Amino acid sequence: MSAHETLHTLVRTDGPVLAPDMPIRRAVAMLVAERVSAAPVIDDSGALVGILSQKDCFRPTLNASYYQEWKGNVVDFMTARVVTLSAGIDIAEAAEAFVAHSHRAFPVLEGDRFLGMLHRSDLLQRLVELS
């Protein structure tokens, strides 16, 4: 294996997937339970429409702790302008994306279809294995 391998072997396909109309409390609980930094938001047609990160979850969680009430759905707090990676790029290109952006995870697409999430920690581990 080399840095020319594609993302197919590193993409997590078993993580949580959120819907835009899901209550934010449920989504936050899923991220915490699964111990992931972000999850894709997929609409009824299967299209990626956003991403919900731990950072996105702080505002509703702080409001809930202060007012003792959870309000809103995933669509109200998600990031709609998503930076994605193509499944066909090599891991060196993916590493450059992590250098350029402060993201802990990227959604990976195969064409227009959501494939899974690439986590920074998984890519870093693979790069260490190759060095």
Give the helices and strands, then pairings.
Blueprint: H1 24-34, E1 38-42, E2 48-53, H2 54-67, H3 74-77, E3 85-86, H4 91-100, E4 105-110, E5 113-119, H5 120-130
Parallel strand pairs: 3-4
Antiparallel strand pairs: 1-2, 4-5
Helix pairs in contact: 1-2, 4-5
Structure description:
By secondary structure, this protein is of the alpha+beta class. The chain has 5 helices and 5 strands; from the N terminus they run H-E-E-H-H-E-H-E-E-H. The protein has helices spanning 24-34, 54-67, 74-77, 91-100, 120-130, and strands at 38-42, 48-53, 85-86, 105-110, 113-119. The protein has a 3-stranded mixed sheet. It has a two-stranded antiparallel ribbon with strand order 1-2. The longest helix has 14 residues, at 54-67. The chain starts with 23 loop residues before the first helix and ends with a helix.
Give a brief description:
38% of the residues lie in helices and 20% in strands.
User: How many angstroms separate the termini?
Assistant: 11 Å
> What is the helical fraction, as a range of percent?
25-40%
Order of helices and strands: HEEHHEHEEH
Helix count, DSSP H or I runs of 4 or more residues: 5
Low-confidence stretches: none
The portion of residues forming beta strands comes to 15-25%
Class based on secondary structure composition and strand pairing: alpha+beta
Oligomer: single chain
Comma- or semicolon-separated keywords:
three-stranded mixed beta sheet; 5 strands; two-stranded antiparallel ribbon; 131 residues; single chain; 5 helices; alpha+beta
